[in-house]
Design brief:
Elements: H1 2-75, H2 85-120, H3 133-147, H4 150-183, H5 191-228
Helix pairs in contact: 1-2, 1-5, 2-3, 2-4, 4-5
Transmembrane segments: 49-74, 80-102, 157-181, 193-216
Keywords: Membrane, Transmembrane, Transmembrane helix
Region (Disordered): 125-147
């Protein structure tokens, strides 16, 4: 009898412990979900803040290079009757500056259309109980479609490829002229050579990072589409 009573007591205490633990977990579950949601929102905010900083720095660098190339190209452009460094290098800089300005205009048109879309159709909100992931994905797709047409996106990519190649050619030519000037008698006007080389390298680095980002986003979107359109597995017999 005593053994049976001891067994009953131990079973009751174990049941009580399990009950207390489950009740504590049920009470703390909303708090844990709230902490997780807060951490997710914080990481998203940090990510968006970092993206805004990168966008701001990129635009400042590119617009600064464009203004500098345009100023130096107009100031130091001279025609001596034949094709020499004093003519084609500043003219090349003016061409690169014009392409940079056109690229930035297309970019800001895309951003402006996105802001208009967000004003008309706000982003769906998600809470702890309702995530609305599908609605947010659809909203992002609609925003991408409304922000810029397919022709505008294609023209932007083609323009950046042309701009990259033109800037690469300018940098290589400036390096060649710089080497000749160092080994020769020097140059009467070294500003176009120096600015073309160093700031051309900076512009190439910025556009190379853009191409890397674009290719990564393109590959990830293709992978997501392939996963979503992949056929369902056959049921087990």
């Amino acid at each position: 009898m005593e053994k049976n009573e001891k067994k009953k007591k131990t079973e009751m205490t174990s049941d009580l412990i399990v009950y207390w633990e489950t009740s504590l977990l049920n009470r703390r579950q909303p708090l844990l979900l709230g902490y997780l949601e807060f951490a997710k929102n914080k990481t998203k905010r940090m990510k968006t803040l970092l993206e805004y900083v990168v966008i701001y720095v990129t635009n400042v660098i590119l617009l600064g290079i464009g203004v500098l190339f345009l100023y130096v190209g107009i100031r130091d452009n001279c025609w001596s009757g034949h094709l020499d460094v004093c003519f084609y290098l500043p003219t090349w800089m003016i061409g690169v500056a014009v392409l940079i300005f056109i690229d930035r205009l297309i970019y800001w048109k895309h951003k402006f259309n996105g802001v208009i879309f967000e004003g008309k159709f706000p982003r769906p909100r998600s809470s702890i109980r309702h995530s609305n992931k599908e609605q947010i994905k659809q909203w992002q797709k609609d925003k991408e479609k409304r922000s810029s047409s397919k022709k505008l996106r294609t023209s932007s990519v083609i323009l950046r490829v042309i701009l990259f190649l033109v800037t690469l050619g300018l940098t290589i030519v400036a390096l060649h002229v710089l080497i000749q000037a160092v080994h020769g008698k020097g140059s009467a006007d070294p500003d176009p050579i120096i600015f073309s080389f160093y700031f051309g390298m900076l512009a190439l680095f910025v556009y190379f990072c853009m191409f890397v980002k674009y290719s990564v986003n393109f590959c990830t979107s293709r992978l997501k589409k392939s996963k979503s359109t992949s056929p369902a597995p056959m049921p087990n017999p």
